Every structure is written in structure tokens, then in C-alpha cells.
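Changelog entry: the Translationally-controlled tumor protein homolog record was regenerated in this release. Current contents:
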Amino acid sequence: MLVYQDLLTGDELLSDSFPYREIENGILWEVDGKWVVQGAIDVDIGANPSAEGGGDDEGVDDQAVKVVDIVDTFRLQEQPPFDKKQFVTFMKRYIKNLSAKLDAEKQEEFKKNIEGATKYLLGKLKDLQFFVGESMHDDGGLVFAYYKDGATDPTFLYFSHGLKEVKC
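Regenerated C-alpha cells:
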């Protein structure tokens, strides 16, 4: 299994259990998330509760919770939305911090294509949700989520150059 960690913080953000598609010249990875239900496990042990005097409301009060699989699996923490100025400020800092961690070839590729990816994200800014890794480190990468037209499940966007592949 492969896990993808934030290159700046070491937080686990993704794994190969969630296939990705490269967009914006490979700078962004697009990953489909899904809403899943956790809790409220209904175990059928073969007993007939009505014959035993039991009702539907008997037993443990177990609450089902809907979560997004990627957010739950990697314990992503949602952040307040950014306005355009805040986003541009974040991107400048992120580009500077990430570029310092990349080798020369990756750095050149990143700097060549990051402007297009930034414009792509700016075009979706009002529709994006922002997430950081579990450590909630300020200088780490962001994970973006949005809903495509008519979709009920979110699509996540990752900066590919900001991820480090780790074999587990």
C-alpha cells in the first residue's frame, strides 16, 4: 500500500486506495470522495424481538453519522474559506516553502505549471472547501474539496508536488 504524505508536515493526506487523475499538467490530482455512514450497526442475531417482548427502540441508542471517506480516513481538518487575497497570500507562501523542498527538475516543473493550477483553483474559489492534515500545521499544504455540477459526493484536489509517496 502507498500512502501520500504532505511533504512539508508529514501528515498523511491520501493513499493508493483512492485513485487519482492528473489535471492542470500534473500539478493537481483529482480524487473522488464518497459520503459513507458510520455507526448504527444493525446486527441480526436471528432472534425475533417481537416474540420476546422487545420493541424496535430497545437496546443501545446508536447514532449513525455520515462522513466523507477521505476526510475521515486521513483525519483532515476543515478550515475556514479563503477570500481571493488570503488564497493568493497562501499560494505565494506555499510555493516558496514547497520549492525549497523539491529537487531541481521537480522545482522547474512545479514553477512552470503552478500558475495555471492557481488560476484553476481561483476560478473555483467560492465553491471550495479547505482542509489541512491532522497536525493542522500552518505551513502545510491544503487539500481542496468541491462538488461537481449535480454531484452528491465531493471531489478532492491535491498538489501532486506537495505529496511524498511512502510504502507501507
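DSSP finds three helices and eleven strands in the chain.
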